[in-house]
Amino acid sequence: MNQSKAKITAIGSYVPEKVMTNEDFSKIVETSDEWIVSRTGIKERRIAAEHEYTSDLGYKAVLNLVERYGKSIDDVDMLIVCTFTPDVATPSSAAIIQAKLEIRHADTLDLNAACAGFTYGIHMANALITSGLHKKILVIGSETLSKITDYEDRTTCILFGDGAGAVLVEYDEHEPSFITHYMGSEGEKSKNLYCSGISNLLFGEELEHKQRIVQNGREVYRWAVTTVPEGIRTMLNGINYPIENVDWFVPHSANLRMIESICERTGISLDRTLYSLEDYGNTSSATIPLALDLAVKAGRIKQGEHLLLYGFGGGLTHCGLLIKWTL
């Protein structure tokens, strides 16, 4: 039985102005537009300006949300920023955004679940509101991956872009958004996708690069196309929910070939799948809210439809949510 008392009431997004096309990459590494599109589905991505950071993108996504939905955020009592590219180690990007929004009474925290961050974040917001501890939470997925991308590594640099998406989650026991969830992590596989920080060691082994994204794409692909379909089946079987009843599938936009494999293994049509990678690349925790907002702006998602969100990535971590669209 659904015990949720939380509802998504608004959405907003922001991407930087600078566009980096596949042709731009062909000038700095050995690649081509045809090679990138055929293997990833990505055509272009947005790149933050030199002095534009994760908090700036997240802040502008919230302003976009407020402008479009006319929502007051003066009474927001929690900010959750999902990111693994914070402006600084501390204070949190959430605290910086709170200051910019001038909502002094809101609690703040950053949540790092990498590419599963947004689904983890709204799951946490649902839990905090349903428990009665909070009433109104801003969840922001914001990343500036260009700041930690190795532009000499042709296998990874073509993937990543910058962007932010935000949703407002509020108390509503009569028409909640959240139906069920499934989540997990396999930390023993974490060396397949990492970015070092204060330490350059992982499980006692020295990492290849400092403060740059390193990925074993083949292993991450194998893990995702197995783990995500299994997670979806477990989640939906737990409530006897037929997968045919899912109106829209919104996976993390890592790679179109990966999404196609997941769809094939679950029986979900690609026509019912929303993604943001074509224009924005892999923006980690921002891919799902960006995909949602693109569909909202295009009038594709209808009120009352059921959406299956599934984030997966560094950790290796994953989180799926079945929600009812209430906007």
Report on the architecture of this protein.
The chain has 327 residues and is of the alpha+beta class. It folds into 2 domains: 6-171, 3-Layer(aba) Sandwich (Peroxisomal Thiolase, Chain A, domain 1), CATH 3.40.47; 178-324, Peroxisomal Thiolase, Chain A, domain 1 (3-Layer(aba) Sandwich). The protein has 9 helices and 15 strands. The strands form 5 sheets. It has a 5-stranded mixed beta sheet, with helices on both faces. The protein has a 4-stranded mixed beta sheet with strand order 8-15-14-13, sandwiched between helices. A two-stranded antiparallel ribbon has the order 2-3. β4, α4 and β5 form a beta-alpha-beta unit. The protein is globular, with a radius of gyration of 19 Å. The mean pLDDT is 94.
List the SSEs and their pairings.
Blueprint: E1 6-14, E2 18-21, H1 22-25, H2 33-40, E3 44-47, H3 54-69, E4 78-82, H4 93-101, E5 107-111, H5 117-130, E6 136-144, E7 162-171, E8 178-185, E9 193-195, E10 201-202, E11 205-206, E12 213-215, H6 217-237, E13 248-251, H7 256-266, H8 277-280, H9 287-297, E14 306-313, E15 317-324
How many structural domains are formed by the residues? 2
Biggest sheet statistics? 5 strands, mixed
Helix content: 25-40%
Strand order of the largest sheet: 1-7-6-4-5
Residue ranges: pLDDT <50 for 5 or more in a row? none
Oligomer state of the chains in this structure: single chain
Q: In CATH terms, what is the architecture of the largest domain?
A: 3-Layer(aba) Sandwich
What gap, in angstroms, lies between the N and C termini? 23 Å
Structural class: alpha+beta
Q: Treating each run of at least 4 consecutive H or I residues as one helix, how many helices?
A: 9
Compressed to H and E, one letter per element, the order equals EEHHEHEHEHEEEEEEEHEHHHEE
